[in-house]
Amino acid sequence: MADHNVRKGFDAVSGRRSRTNELDSIRKKKRDNAFDKMSSSMSVDFHGVEESIDETMFDACMVPSTPEEFMFCANQLRTNDLMEQLKGAFSLRKAAAKNTTKIFQLIVDTGIVPTAVTFLDQTTSDRGKVEVAWVLTNLASNDEFTQLVITAGTIPVMMRTLTSPNFDVAIQAAWCLGNFANEGDVYRQDFIRSGVPASLAALFAHPKCVPKHTSTVAWAIGSIARLATSTTETVKLHHACHVVDQQLFAALTNLDHRAMDKQTLSAVHDILLTVGHLSSGDDEDIGAVLNAGFAKPVIQLLYGVNKLARRAISIIGNLTSGDNDAFVTHLIDVSVLPGLEHSLQSDYSGIQRESLWAISNIFAGTEEHMAAALAQGLLPIIIQCLRKSDADVKSEAALCLLNFTSNATQEAIDIAVQEYEFLETLAKVCQPTADTTLLVSVLDAAKNVFMLEASTLNNTYAVYFESAGGYDRLTALSHHAKLDVASRADELLKTYYDGDDDFDFEDDDEFHF
């Protein structure tokens, strides 16, 4: 396998699931992370894959660059002479390692792909298998050629190759199957039904499985586990992926997190991404991940480098998003709250944002969960995030504080108002130029606080808000172009400040004056 992998599509993609109370404001949310296909952009040394091979036979092999040279190599693979077949496969693999569409097209133009698949399935040479599997893997990593490789009958052959007793052969098959999984859910479903995740996970225990291989296997499993769960059948299939949990957990805990060399860092990162996919689902998915023991090591990684901490905090968000309150109780018992306090103060906005998401889920839980989070001292940090962070963090902080006002006791809210300048902060961020989502969350949070006091006029909380310039901000927002913002501001003015403005709001999202 190559030491360097070319990957794309690893950014987190937002998703959201809502759980609402009578105020329609308590949210528990879920996120998703995306894998994509990967290829090798470097050549590797396959010495030792098959001990009987005389490696000097490859010294004179060409690296083809012209159509004629590619055809010559393809014809070598078409012979019945194993030595010639190995030379042809070697040369094609050296060319494919350049990882360019032009090279891939030259390989495809020889018509060799079906022959390569047959050779992979029938040859008894492990060296031949790994050379040809490499070529097919890199072809499959390119969107222009993935379907061509699939229609040549590669998938069932690769699934058989995955169970090869030769680790080098099996790991190459794992890589190729991961690329096929990233071609779409239809392949993920077939792989799950065929037991591919379990076969992949078995590779973790092989003595030759070093961190770079752990990374490949975790990536392949995650590429399957990212299955969309839009039907009852796909939900069940996603549940079936948890057959790998124990082996994945062992792989994570067996890595030396202190070493943090490039390959170890990549392996931990890819395991976390895969756990993110496994935990992104319903309560059965979350329970399976917790039962496998992932909570403690994931929490520990909140204190690691940003690359790992970001993945770890996303998993914590998934684990806090279930309907079973026992999940959050367990996380609190294993010290998630100090980890969240640490993450909340990260210098990386992505980690701050994910931390707020997880805390928001905790705020949407039981009174005990809320009390534990407040006792950890999270609230003033969240208010500070709303006051001084960038726009994305502010929006997440506003949603978090909305859940706080929806679920906290009056005593807790009074402390926030009197000691942490909560209402002053809400008033400060009510700027007409602010993000609409942020404004809606802030106005709803202010309303929740105002409602704690039965009186509407001379409402103590409304006075706090007004003293910080809140009345003037509400007046400006009552003319906001977005109905969701304007109607909320106008309601607060009329209810708590006896506002004189009287607007007739139309159903359209915008006003036209």
Query: What's the average pLDDT?
Result: 89
Record the strand order, biggest sheet. Answer: 1-4
Radius of gyration, rounded? 28 Å
What is the helix tally?
29
Major sheet characteristics: 2 strands, antiparallel
The percentage helix is 55-70%
Family: Belongs to the importin alpha family.
GO biological process, one term: protein import into nucleus
Keywords: Protein transport, Repeat, Transport
InterPro entries: ARM-like, ARM-type_fold, Arm_3, Armadillo, Importin_alpha
Task: Lay out the secondary structure.
Elements: E1 5-7, E2 12-14, E3 31-33, E4 38-40, H1 67-78, H2 82-96, H3 101-109, H4 113-122, H5 126-141, H6 146-151, H7 154-162, H8 167-181, H9 185-193, H10 196-202, H11 211-225, H12 232-240, H13 245-254, H14 262-279, H15 283-291, H16 295-300, H17 306-319, H18 325-333, H19 336-344, H20 349-363, H21 367-375, H22 378-388, H23 391-407, H24 410-419, H25 422-429, H26 436-450, H27 460-467, H28 470-477, H29 483-496
Antiparallel strand pairs: 1-4, 2-3
Tell me what you see in this structure.
- It is a single chain.
- The relative contact order is 0.07.
- About 65% of the residues lie in helices and about 0% in strands.
- Among the domains are: about 1-20 and about 35-150, no CATH class; about 185-295, Leucine-rich Repeat Variant (Alpha Horseshoe), CATH 1.25.10; about 420-513, no CATH class.
- It has helices at about 65-80, 80-95, 100-110, 115-120, 125-140, 145-150, 155-160, 165-180, 185-195, 195-200, 210-225, 230-240, 245-255, 260-280, 285-290, 295-300, 305-320, 325-335, 335-345, 350-365, 365-375, 380-390, 390-405, 410-420, 420-430, 435-450, 460-465, 470-475, 485-495; strands at about 5, 10-15, 30-35, 40.
- The strands form 2 sheets. A two-stranded antiparallel sheet has the order 1-4.
- Helix 4 (about 115-120) runs parallel beside helix 7 (about 155-160), helix 20 (about 350-365) runs parallel beside helix 23 and helix 26 packs parallel to helix 29 (about 485-495).
